[in-house]
Write a structure and sequence with these properties.
heterotrimer, A alpha+beta, B alpha+beta, C alpha+beta, A: alpha+beta, Gyrase A, domain 2, Alpha-Beta Plaits, 2 domains, five-stranded antiparallel sheet, 5 helices, C: alpha+beta, Ubiquitin-like (UB roll), FAD/NAD(P)-binding domain, 6 domains, seven-stranded mixed sheet, six-stranded mixed sheet, 50 strands
């Protein structure tokens, strides 16, 4: 029985939620992440095995897929981020590695990131004060790495124009949260 | 500036980190007779053209690709953008 | 005196009266007024004093190009200097103060400058304050700084918020006059993503200021209808109060939106202004044109204004600058002013037209072929003196003179990417040249299409063309019937033969005479003219004066205007507050803060934090009774070496390196060999730059044949990753290796000291063998702890003690440090911070940033043997250069003071025991120093020539900065446990 109690990126026992007129900013701690990179020469095998395990094809450059239990977005050439619910997939990385074997390199990324889900009608107005991602052009599942509050973050489109997840470096969760809340107060 | 990333399309140059002359791909053979001289030239001697320049940009706030961007240093017009890995292979760096 | 010059009509809201104060006096105006229009409506023409001579000045224009009417708006920490009264929207309770006037606007003591103006001509400062040289900084400059300059600042922190933002569009339309509106309607109706930006708070441009009809509607009604339609379109974003300040590369534009400047009180949490970065696929510059003045004697008196500005005030704001207004023009457009004034019931005593064949004016006397040669009125215009065509002079009483010298297309933004405007002889003006910023087209008056009909047509067809480039078929809107007057103008720049000074640049007090003086002294290049006379500098950047200065210079050199030069412009279009440029990156939010996993716990312990890059790290943990940092640090060091200490080392960069060729790859990026490192082992690694200089060090742990975890220093984490990606993609593109940063994913703690194993044994799960045999020095492995949590364990030591580093997923980091401290209670465990960490690594002689300082090689660091000669790695070849491989060169050694109480100082240079202390006799330098509580004295490490062979030698550590010299003895850098027995215990 594990006797260490986890805390959220913002340092609390439960995730923080901030509500504004037209936007909700919800900290998320209930997801596991792993990066997956195809080995050189094994790209086809990697794609086949990944599809078998995930239930969908690895996304093309700039794209992503949202499904249950797994979701994925393209991070770089032959590299993807895979996400799954934390409670049942805390060992996502090791399971992925088992499934893909020598065809891929897998790294646990779960706690490399803090995550804030932004949703509501005011999303566009808030996001445009934070980063250069063009929300109107983003399809569901697609993620873009952007600079936000001087931090390298992913904007991950959950529902076009309505909802995104912002993944940022976990150690800067407080700075990122401050920026998100500041922009929401400013724009809404 | 906007850089037309071969995989992602137009991206703001602010997302990139600049390195310099793409000749940095042509790292000399360490076992050659004149390795010392070749490395010296490789590291210290650069052309500084007023015009088309092939240069290395790293998509740091992006997909982490190194790109070779052909840019006119006078007008900032960008005429070609390639994945540096493809360029490196084409220039015989495969082994 | 309540709004004595207020007329009927206008686009102001008379239902909403506003109170405001200017220079201590109270006035009333209406919603929709600017400060300038409200002052004029109240009969106030005097609005400021000039920059150099403190001449009384009024308002010249009705827009952002205003050179004269600069005021200090608001009070206290919101006071803003150099606000143009012409664009400051009136709000209830507005407070403004005139600038450059002391003790008052009406009586300004500094106006004495005007009396000695003969001494203050062009180049005055350069000529007068040359000698004696030291006087410039100490005497002259402070006096000049105090006397000159525009406005003053509050010296208080700006309390307002500023935002930055990013917008995307197919078509950015700059300017919402007739051209911009026609373009926006054309593009908007076809569904394109359009941004229409205008600096004014009311869109419509000249349509709001003229009495022209468009079809059946007045210009302003047509504009209002167009704006209403555009506002109903989801694909069109209307941005009023938004100035596009710069055209940058590849369709990127900068724009400043003034969100709250027009409100009495800034709303909390809302920005005052927003700096937008606009990504446009195409852009249309529809910025219109600016009327230009004519220079004549005493043309700077309050009441002398541009004719178009007079029409703006009368038509849009229903404010007459005076009851009697004379017109002075060289073109037909000026005549329109007379008609508009007469229609509003303002008297027009005369229209003075320099053209002998000027057309007649209905309702006013025309003085054709006449010129204004002087003006009268101390604080405001009372009359003008005219030289008639027949040579006689005549004085005409008036309170305002409306001047029109023709129109300059507003080419400003076309120049931002090196574009140079072209001369158009028909307009006698510069129009945009062919080299425009990529993706930009210019339409309407900005492109020299000065009639309303041309503007509308140009806007509509321009939008069709721009969208056509993007593959969208748009249909030009049906254009209404409207004015389409041809250009009728005689180029005319300044009146010859006036007695007094004729002003070219009102903002910088540059006269025709100054331009002549510059010419006389051979400053004939326009760029030199500008710098010598200050023509075209300051807040207006010469929008109303550059052309005039150029024309005067052309006349003097006998060349044509285009031969003389062009004036080009740089961003920003109008002044931008520093706060807007800074955005939210102020104070402690200047950069983001990175917190370690133990941050909350460390705060509870009362830790003192230090910034390491963006990281906040615990520097030391004071305990009760400790009053000096040294007490805490000494205790942490001693306790760790005696029993056990815990330190958060999460900040080190961590890079996951995987792939079949991972080992081969590490062999190339590290100077030392990694190929044969067994699985389950860690090795120290040194990275070189290609020039052979060491730049980073860390460890690589081999978790599997094809999996390493590499650590970098905290400072170089980003750089090392970038360099490794360069090596992977550009140098060895076919190696099978994949990289990803995992710095943040793992919370990592060093557990160091003789009792480290005992402590850890209580934490790791029962089946994990951490005995010295089962997990020896430099072992690593994936384990579980605290009941099954996946973790990584490394037996590595920076302190020199028996030590481990243990890593868990970051979310458990807080709980783990608490668990470690609880488990360590029986051993009197101490947390230690970066200071104790530093002391212990110096005691152990480990190199850090001070030693890897960008000048040192592996050889210097005493690691020369590590650099493998049998393989290719970055930096290997050039590290063998003669200058870098001197056997008797600098070597890392330790230093102890000969007298135990003496301090060893980092940065001190080493000199032989006797002889001169000079750079020539330099033996090396000390890089790191500290007090060692274990040795009971100060110690240091550093680089000494041939250091390895000089053990025991006495040297002097000279610190000329502080005038101290300390005698030191050369010792091994390994002060503690040189044999490494503790590490392996």
């Amino acid at each position: 029985m594990l006797n260490l109690k986890p805390i959220t990126a913002l340092g609390a026992e439960v995730p923080q939620v901030d509500s504004f007129d037209g936007l909700e900013i919800a900290e998320r701690a209930d997801f596991a992440l792993a990066s997956l990179a195809a080995r050189q020469g094994e790209e086809v095998l990697c794609a086949t095995k990944a599809q078998a395990y995930l239930g969908f094809a690895l996304p093309q450059p700039g794209q992503g897929s949202l499904a249950a239990p797994f979701s994925a977005f393209w991070m770089g050439p032959d590299q993807w981020m895979i996400a799954a619910p934390h409670d049942r997939h805390e060992d996502l990385a090791s399971h992925l590695k088992q499934a893909l074997g020598e065809s891929a390199s897998v790294s646990e990324q779960t706690d490399g990131w803090c995550r804030f889900d932004l949703s509501g009608a005011g999303l566009q107005a808030v996001l445009e004060r934070l980063c250069n991602a063009d929300l109107a052009s983003m399809a569901a599942g697609e993620a873009r790495r952007v600079r936000l509050e001087h931090l390298g973050c992913f904007i991950w489109c959950l529902e076009p124009s309505q909802s995104v997840a912002i993944l940022g470096p976990r150690s800067s969760a407080a700075s990122l949260h401050h920026a998100l809340v500041g922009a929401a107060k400013s724009a809404l | 500036m906007m850089i037309d990333h071969p995989l992602l399309g137009l991206r703001d140059a602010q997302e990139f980190t600049y390195l310099g002359d793409a000749s940095l791909i042509d790292r000399p053979d360490w076992q050659a007779e004149d390795a010392q001289d070749a490395f010296h030239d490789y590291l210290y001697l650069r052309d500084n053209p007023a015009g088309a320049h092939r240069e290395l940009w790293f998509h740091e706030t992006g997909d982490r690709s190194w790109l070779v961007v052909t840019r006119n240093t006078l007008t900032h017009e960008i005429t070609k953008v390639e994945l540096a890995r493809d360029v490196a292979r084409a220039r015989g760096r495969s082994k | 005196m309540n709004q004595v010059n207020r007329l009927t009509g206008g686009q102001i809201n008379r239902a909403k009266e506003l109170n405001f104060r200017f220079d201590g006096r109270s006035f009333k105006g209406f919603e929709g007024d600017t400060l300038a229009s409200a002052l004029l409506a109240n009969g106030e023409r005097l609005m400021g004093r000039s920059f150099k001579y403190h001449r009384p000045r009024g308002v010249l224009t009705a827009g952002s190009e205003e050179p004269n009417a600069l005021v200090e708006l608001r009070q206290g920490n919101r006071q803003e200097p150099n606000t143009r009264a012409t664009v400051a929207e009136l709000f209830e309770g507005l407070e403004a103060k005139a600038q450059n006037a002391w003790p008052s606007l009406r009586f300004d003591a500094m106006a004495v400058n005007d009396r000695i103006s003969n001494f203050l001509t062009a180049g005055f400062y350069y000529k007068t304050f040359m000698w004696p040289k030291p006087f410039w900084e100490k005497v002259y400059e402070p006096i000049i700084r105090k006397a000159a300059g525009l406005g003053s600042i509050s010296f208080e922190d700006d309390p307002d918020l500023y935002d930055k933002g990013f917008l995307h569009c197919d078509l950015l339309i700059i300017g919402a006059g007739p051209t911009g509106l026609a373009a926006a309607l054309t593009a908007g109706r076809c569904g394109a993503r359009v941004i229409l930006a205008d600096e004014d708070f009311r869109m419509g441009g000249r349509l709001n200021a003229e009495t022209l009809a468009l079809g059946d509607a007045s210009g302003s009604d047509w504009a209002a209808e167009a704006i209403a339609e555009l506002a109903s379109l989801d694909n069109v974003r209307l941005m009023t109060r938004t100035t596009v300040i710069g055209a940058f590369d590849h369709g990127i534009y900068g724009a400043v939106e003034r969100v709250q400047d027009h409100l009495p009180q800034a709303q909390a949490d809302k920005p005052r202004q927003i700096l937008w970065r606009i990504y446009s696929r195409r852009a249309m510059l529809c910025a219109g044109a600016m009327e230009r003045p004519i220079a004549f004697a005493d043309n700077d008196r309050p009441g002398v204004m541009l004719a178009s500005a007079v029409r703006s005030y009368v038509n849009r704001w229903a404010a007459a600058p005076a009851q009697e207004i004379v017109i002075f023009t060289n073109n037909d457009d000026g005549h329109r002013t007379a008609a508009d004034l007469i229609a509003k019931g303002v008297k027009v005593p005369a229209v003075i037209d320099v053209r002998a064949d000027a057309p007649a004016v209905a309702g006013a006397e025309l003085l054709a072929g006449a010129e204004v040669i002087g003006t009268e009125g101390r604080l405001g215009l009372t009359s003008v003196t005219v030289r008639l065509a027949n040579g006689q002079t005549r004085k005409i009483k008036c309170g305002s003179l409306a001047v029109s010298g023709g129109w300059n297309p507003n080419v400003h933004l076309t120049c931002h990417q090196r574009g140079r405007p072209h001369w158009n002889a028909e307009l006698a003006a510069f129009v945009p040249g062919p080299e425009l910023p990529s993706g930009m087209t210019v339409a309407g008056a900005a492109n020299g299409q000065l009639s309303t009909a041309q503007a509308l047509a140009g806007g509509a067809s321009g939008a069709v063309a721009a969208l056509g480039d993007l593959g969208t078929t748009a249909k030009a809107i049906d254009l209404p019937q409207t004015e389409d007057a041809p250009i009728a103008l005689k180029p005319f720049w300044h009146v010859q033969g006036g007695k007094s000074r004729a002003w070219v640049d009102l903002q910088n007090d540059v006269t025709v005479k100054d331009v002549k003086l510059a010419h006389q002294e051979n400053f004939v290049s326009v760029e030199h003219l500008k710098r010598y006379t200050t023509l075209g500098m300051a807040t207006d950047q010469g929008k109303t004066s550059n052309m005039l200065g150029l024309a005067v210079m052309a006349e003097l050199t006998g060349k044509s205007i285009p031969e003389t030069g062009t004036t080009i412009f740089r961003p920003p279009y109008t002044p931008v507050p520093m706060g807007t440029m800074a955005g939210r990156a102020t104070g402690k939010h200047f950069h983001p803060t990175r917190k370690t996993p133990s941050h909350h716990w460390a705060e509870e312990q009362g830790a003192v934090f230090t910034e390491v890059g963006d990281w906040l790290r615990a520097q030391w943990f004071p305990r009760q009774g400790e009053t000096h940092w040294r007490q805490s640090v000494d205790r942490e060091v001693l306790q760790t070496r005696k029993s056990v200490g815990v330190c958060d080392v999460t900040t080190l960069g961590k890079i996951d390196v995987q792939g079949k060729d991972a080992a081969t790859f590490l062999n190339k990026v590290y100077a030392n060999a990694f190929a044969k490192l067994p699985v389950g082992k860690v090795r120290y690694g040194l990275m070189l730059r290609e020039d052979g200089i060491a730049y980073d060090d860390g460890t690589a742990a081999r978790l599997a044949e094809d999996h390493f975890v590499v650590t970098t220093t905290t400072a170089n984490a980003v750089l090392a990753y970038r360099n490794m990606e360069f090596a992977r993609q550009c140098l060895w593109p076919d190696l099978d290796v994949q990289l990803i940063s995992t710095t943040e994913a793992w919370a990592q703690y060093a557990v160091a000291g003789p009792n480290a194993r005992k402590l850890l044994k209580k934490i790791v799960d029962a089946d994990v063998d951490i005995s010295n045999e089962g997990f020896p020095f430099m072992a690593c492995g994936e384990i579980t702890l605290c009941g099954g949590l996946r973790a990584r364990l490394f037996r590595i030591s920076f302190s020199g003690e028996l030590a481990y580093e243990v890593a868990v997923p970051t979310r458990y980091g807080d709980a783990l440090v608490r668990a470690l401290m609880e488990a360590g209670e029986e051993f009197d465990v101490t947390p230690y911070g970066t200071e104790a960490l530093g002391v212990m690594r110096i005691e152990k002689g480990h190199a850090a940033g001070n030693e890897l300082n960008g000048t040192t090689t592996a050889l210097n660091l005493g690691l020369g043997r590590m650099v493998s000669k049998k393989k290719d790695c970055i930096g290997n070849t050039l590290s063998e250069r003669k200058g870098l491989s001197d056997a008797a060169g600098l070597r890392l050694v330790g230093f102890r003071p000969v007298k135990a109480q003496d301090p060893v100082t980092a940065g001190a240079h080493l000199m032989r025991a006797s002889g001169e202390i000079s750079a020539d006799t330099d033996q090396g330098y000390i890089t790191s120093a500290c007090f060692s509580p274990n040795l009971g004295c100060s110690i240091g490490i550093g680089f000494l020539k041939d250091g390895a062979n000089r053990m025991g030698e006495k040297l002097r550590a000279a610190n000329p900065l502080e005038g101290s010299t300390v005698e030191v003895e050369v010792v091994s850098a390994h002060f503690i446990d040189p044999e490494g027995e503790r590490l392996r215990a």
